Amino acid sequence: MRIAQIAPLHEAVPPKLYGGTERVVSYLTEALVEQGHDVTLFASGDSITSAKLEAFWPQALRLDPTIRDVMAPHMLLLEEVRRRADEFDVLHFHIDYYPFSLFQRQPVPFVTTMHGRLDLPELQPIFSAFNDVPVVSISDNQRLPLQQAAWQQTVYHGLPEDVLKPIPNVEPGYLAFLGRVSPEKGLDKAIRIAGQAGMKLKVAAKIDKADRAYYEEVIKPLMALPHVEYIGEIGEHEKREFLGNAHALVFPIDWPEPFGLVMIEAMACGTPVIAFKRGSVPEVIENGVSGFVVEDEISAVAAVKRLSTLSREKVRGAFEARFSSKVMARNYVAVYEDLLRQKHRTVLREVNAG
């Protein structure tokens, strides 16, 4: 099958540091290539892939201080994909609702994975106006606010099985927090949970400009507590050591998290997750197997005391069964095949072979 993957231009594919969407696009693209598909990746020029790279912008927009209007490159990207659409069997977008209007007016099947939160009121009229445009959710919970959308499937994110592995004979000595410093991610709660459980908390987190004031006012004073160690933003190659040596990942979110890639990154390392029951958490974490799903800080502290009842081998097994990139790619191919059937189209490669 000839597949176009269209990534956001904010980060490279895969991103150098933080960037969940671009990381998932990378994992999906590589798994599709490995499964024998002809894949073209539209992304920034500093991306690395075994697919055909259409480097639409020289480098990731976040790393280019000269860019002030980040929408302008994306508009040009959409037009370029439209001009070349008939080269592909299916177009797979990862740039929110931006393709809806333009691409529903052309015949090539396309689908958009919604990677972000969908409980914003301004999204309602968009998905009502485009209620026949095919979309994929990354958790069942994510799609709840937009019942009118043309949901095709829920496809969970996946990681390559070898990108993160358990550390043998580990003696975990701390709790881990990995993500962004922002109110909805709950770093303040993680610090309190670790303190009340009598454990050290290591924090690997990115601070966006928008959250700088929150960091200065709320988080920075807590970072001075003796049980907290702030490592900063880490890259892919540092995650195995960071997550693999942790007693658990603490994920005390206060928002409807659409998926939470860091949860399956921890699971890949055999590290259980203690997560608040919000958003996708109950779909991703099997309570009592890959971690504990809790309601509040008190129950999270109690869960820390019960971590010894979990098998790190079973945590890794839960990851392999449900959240590998192979599984993700197979599920997306099923979506692509459904779209082709709906449009009564055959695969270009098969036509050419005939």
TrEMBL record:
Record domain Glycosyl transferase family: where = 170-313
UniProt cross-references to InterPro entries, sorted A to Z: Glyco_trans_1 (IPR001296), Glyco_trans_4-like_N (IPR028098)
Q: Does the keyword Membrane apply?
A: no
Record keywords: Glycosyltransferase, Transferase
Q: What is its EC number?
A: 2.4.1.-
**Which molecular function GO terms apply here?**
glycosyltransferase activity
Q: Which residues form a coiled coil?
A: none
- Every copy of the Glycosyltransferase subfamily 4-like N-terminal domain together lies at 18-119
Q: Name one Pfam family in it.
A: Glycos_transf_1
User: What protein is this chain from?
Assistant: N-acetyl-alpha-D-glucosaminyl L-malate synthase
